[in-house]
């Protein structure tokens, strides 16, 4: 019996020793697995820090057909017929009779077609006619939505409409409460320009942001939040508001938006913002309109930001247009 007890005790001791050894081995194995998992988690984080930010989609609806030749850019028109014609003639877009002679030339106008000028309506009619002629000839005339266009649809006419601009639409009528609340002399224009009205519907065809070739165009700027929201989405919201499909003005048409942001004004623009925007959209440069009253440099941020003055000239200098050809840009003085 004692021998049996001894053998049993010995067996138990061996078994316990074996279990204890396995436990230590398992513990070490588990520790290695945990360490391996920790390392596996750290590696992607380290790699992620090295990887560039994912490029935002180029927004195909906002990208127009690749230009076949030159692209000419016009700044703000502000309803100035004579200055508009002079700029277009300098570009080789029209003849003395105002007919399209540009062939496959692409003209991009950076917004603010409207302005405090008695010839505003005639200027707009000329642009409509030329856009149709350009398309028939294999070229294009693209007009962007600027701050003045937005303010007109918002029925905020202060300081941006000439007295003639109200007389031109004086016979127009509307029972829209928004129109009825305005002074009597403004109601005709308001009837046409209020969202859902005929002029607003025509403006709905214009974009806030346009990509053509190796450039992206906007009236005032293009920020990271604009690109991340999606430039197609911003253009779509603008269209819907002008058509009257949504009542409230979208945020991106207000002060922070591409037609009104002040971030890229002055001689110290936010170049890091420009750098990110052109990288995200895989283009070389952002082209915007230059504020009339500001005396600022035209080309900044290592050539990635180009600012084009009004066709009548501005505080920065006499009238000029921008020409983009073969990947290079140059300013051309407007012939008088």
Strand content: 5-15%
Coarse shape: globular
Number of strands: 10
Low-confidence stretches: 1-50
Give the CATH topology of the largest domain: Purple Acid Phosphatase, chain A, domain 2
Number of helices: 11
Strand order of the largest sheet: 3-2-1-9-10
Task: Name the average pLDDT.
Answer: 87
Total domain units: 2
Radius of gyration: 31 Å
Could you tell me how far the N terminus lies from the C terminus, measured between alpha carbons in angstroms? 126 Å
Explain what this protein looks like in three dimensions:
With 336 residues, the chain is of the alpha/beta class. The protein folds into two domains: 1-46; 61-333, Metallo-dependent phosphatases (Purple Acid Phosphatase, chain A, domain 2), CATH 3.60.21.10. Helix content is 40%, strand content 13%. The strands form two sheets. The protein has a five-stranded mixed β-sheet. The model is unreliable at 1-50 (pLDDT under 50). This is Calcineurin-like phosphoesterase. Residues 25-50 have a biased composition (Basic and acidic residues). Residues 23-65 are annotated as: Disordered.
Task: Give a nutshell description of this structure.
The protein has 336 residues and is an alpha/beta fold. The chain is built from eleven helices and ten strands. The chain has two domains: 1-46; 61-333, 4-Layer Sandwich (Purple Acid Phosphatase, chain A, domain 2), CATH 3.60.21.10.
Explain the layout of strands and helices.
Elements: H1 2-50, E1 71-74, H2 81-90, E2 106-109, H3 120-136, E3 140-143, H4 147-153, H5 163-167, H6 177-180, H7 187-193, H8 198-203, E4 209-212, E5 215-218, H9 224-229, H10 231-243, H11 271-280, E6 285-289, E7 299-300, E8 305-308, E9 320-325, E10 328-333
Parallel strand pairs: 1-2, 2-3, 5-6, 6-8
Antiparallel strand pairs: 1-9, 4-5, 7-8, 9-10
